[in-house]
Amino acid sequence: MIPTISDIQDLYNTTEFDRHPISVDFDIVTHQETYPSTKKMVPAHRRDFFSVIFLENQEEGEMLINQDKHAHLNDILFFQSPQHVFSFVRGDSMKGFLLFFKAEFLLPFINEVISEYSFFRNNENNLFHLNENEKREFINLFRAIQTDKQNPNVAKALVVALLEKVKVIQQKHQTKEKTISSETRLVNQFKRLVNNSFIEEKSVEFYAQQLNLTANYLNNRIKAHTGKTAKEHIAERILLEAKNMLMYTDLDVAEISFQLNFSENSYFGKFFKKHTGLTPKAFRQNH
C-alpha cells in the first residue's frame, strides 16, 4: 500500500521540514529554505494535493519520475498531482522553488485542475526543460507569488497565471513529441504506468491490460526498444526504491518489505538477492 500524504503540513512533518504552510491549502518555499533539516530521502508516496517543482540546479540528489532516475537536472519544471507516485533523494545544494496547493485553493477560477491542466495527469509528460527566456519568465512568476503569498487573492491569480504559461510550454513540447516514434511513446506510457503502480502491481499482465496489449507482445516490444523486458523494467523500479530506502532511511528490512508490498519478508530478501547478489542487510552495510 503506497502511503498518502494528506496535506502540506503532513508533508513537512514527514520530511522533518520545520515550517508551517501559509494556509492549509497553499504554500511556496525555495529549495534553499528546506536546508538543513529536511530528510535526505522520502520513499514512494502519493500526495493529496498538487506540487509544482522548479529546479534551477541539482548538483546532487535525484527524483524518480516515470520509472527513470533523474539527476543533475537544470532548469526544469515538474508537476505532480494526487495521481502520481513520487519519491526523491535530496541533494545538498539544490536551488529553485516548491509550490504546493490543494484543488480548492484555485476556486472559483479553476474547478477541475487536472481537466484544465493536463500536465498534472499521470499519463502525460510532467517534466519540461526550460530555455533561458522561459527560465527568466518563470523565476519572475515564482518570485511574484512569493512576494504576495500572504494575499490569497493575488497569490491565487498569480498561480493561475503560472499554470496558464505552462500550457504554452506544453504545446511546444507536444509539437516535438509528434515526431517521436510509436515505440518510444509506448515505452514512455509503460514507464509512467510502472512508476505509479509498481508497489501495488508487479505483474506484466497488469500493465499489458492497461495498454490493451497481451503480456508477451508488451514484453517483446519493450525489449526490442530498450533491450530489457517489461518484467525487468518493473523489477528495476522496485529495486531502485528498495536501494534508496536501504541507503537513505533507518527503516528496518521488514518495514521496507512491507512498504514495497511483499507478502513475506523472505520473498523480498530472495527478490533482492536474485537481482543484486546481496541480501538487503549486506547491501545496507556495504553502502
From TrEMBL:
Superkingdom of origin organism: Bacteria
Keyword Transcription: yes
Keyword entries, A-Z: DNA-binding, Transcription, Transcription regulation
Record-annotated HTH araC/xylS-type domain positions: 188-286
Pfam family, one: HTH_18
Gene Ontology molecular function: DNA-binding transcription factor activity; sequence-specific DNA binding
Name of the protein: AraC family transcriptional regulator
Organism name: Flammeovirga agarivorans
